[in-house]
């Protein structure tokens, strides 16, 4: 697994978790979904992704988007 796949997998899991929390706990958890979406959007424009930085520090190899 490389950084690109790890970031996409992590984002997908977080979106599913936030939707499940909104369904079972309360709709305020949709704010987490909003935060994830905004973070993905800004990462697309700026190239700055905290999750990618974390996964690189954990030793995952760079993917094609980060070479």
Keywords:
single chain, 67 residues
Distance between termini? 15 Å
Q: Quaternary status of these chains?
A: single chain
Helix amount, in percent?
over 70%
Tally the helices: 3
What's the shape? elongated
Sheet having the most strands: none
Strand content: under 5%
Number of strands: 0
Average pLDDT for all residues = 92
- Unreliably modeled segments: none
The radius of gyration is 13 Å
Compressed to H and E, one letter per element, the order equals: HHH
How many discrete domains? Answer: 1
Structural class, judged by helices and strands?
mainly alpha
Textual characterization of the structure:
The chain is an all-alpha fold. It has one domain (3-60). Helix content is 70%, strand content 0%. The chain has helices at 3-24, 30-46, 50-57. Helix 1 packs antiparallel against helix 2 and helix 1 (3-24) crosses helix 3 (50-57).
Set down the secondary structure blueprint:
Blueprint lengths: L2 H22 L5 H17 L3 H8 L10
Helix pairs in contact: 1-2, 1-3
In short:
The chain is mostly helical and 67 residues long.
């Amino acid at each position: 697994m490389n950084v690109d796949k790890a970031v996409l997998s992590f984002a997908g899991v977080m979106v599913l978790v936030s939707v499940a929390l909104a369904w079972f706990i309360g709709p305020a958890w949709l704010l987490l979904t909003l935060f994830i979406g905004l973070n993905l959007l800004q990462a697309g424009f700026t190239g700055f992704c905290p999750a990618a930085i974390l996964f690189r520090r954990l030793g995952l190899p760079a993917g094609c988007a980060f070479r």
